[in-house]
Amino acid sequence: MKIPGVDCVVVRGSYDCLPLQNVVTKLKYSYWSGLHDILPELLRPLVDEKLLPADAVIVPVPLHTRRRRERGFNQAELIAHALSHVSGLPMIQTIERIRYTTPQAQLSAKQRQTNIIGAFGQGNMVVKKANSVILVDDVITTGSTVAECATALRRQGVSKITALALAKG
Question: Which domains does the chain have, with CATH numbers?
């Protein structure tokens, strides 16, 4: 899969795989305490197989503050924390969602591309001297969200972006 602004895409598996789909659904729509045990185990093979840059910082795809308040958590942030734990790489929140958008899951592929344009900007932390970022999300479907986040990261001077997701939709 090629996503504009992204150098490499790494996914754990297909969203069509029922066990992975169940984990993603529990992660995205209900905070499930069992995730603390499962997420590191799902991500460890990606680290062990050296599919991720060893000198990167981890950046979760942010939720808008309103959506985070509604949901109570950010699923990409939970995945990023687990990845940080198994890889030893630092996690920072260097981009923020500056515009509230319709949930991408409710939209067609064409609508997803236009819905997300301009939704991300620079957060409180700036990537300093980090040439490489692992951008983390739960599912990559069309790649529109990741592409917009990559644009915001490139504006901060990031030269290499690896997108990581639990599943490819």
Answer: 8-168 (3.40.50)
